[in-house]
Structures are given as C-alpha cells and as structure tokens.
Predict the structure.
Amino acid sequence: MDQTIATKTLADVYLAQGNPRKALEIYRELLKREPSNMEVLEAVRQLRRMIAPSPGPTTNAQSQELTRMEKIRNLEKWKQRVQTIRRLRQERKTE
C-alpha cells in the first residue's frame, strides 16, 4: 500500500464497504507510521478479531505481534518522558 494514501478515512471506507481485510492493511500501514497511536492500535485489534477464523497458531502469532507493538508504544512514551526530563534539566541549567 502506498503510504501517501494510507489514511484512517480510507480504512473506514474499506470497512464500510465490507472489506475488513483491506481496512486492516491500511491500519497496519498507519501503525507503522504512528506506533503510539492508540486509536489505530485498537482498530487493528478489532479488525483482527473480526477477521480471525478461529483460535490457533495464527491467532497466537497475531497476539505476539500486538504485544510487540504495545512494547514499542510503551518504549516510545518512555523515550518522550526521558527527553522531556532532559530538556527541563537543561533549561534549569541555563537559567
């Protein structure tokens, strides 16, 4: 999927047209660009549940991928906090 046209609106259109697999493809692209976007992460979860045929190895692999994405999201948040703390400390030093 061309990343320049992968938008939430496009994913919603695919979903409204009854094409959840295509919507999931778009949301995955969005998640790659914004791993900390909780709205997109939740949409991916819901679409995977909707599409998943039955529990089994595929579901386990999907679960592991989500866990990985959640870890990335948490690390991104942590990184932002550390950067904020460093910036604030630097500002105090320059005062």
Q: What stands out?
A: The chain has a mean pLDDT of 81.
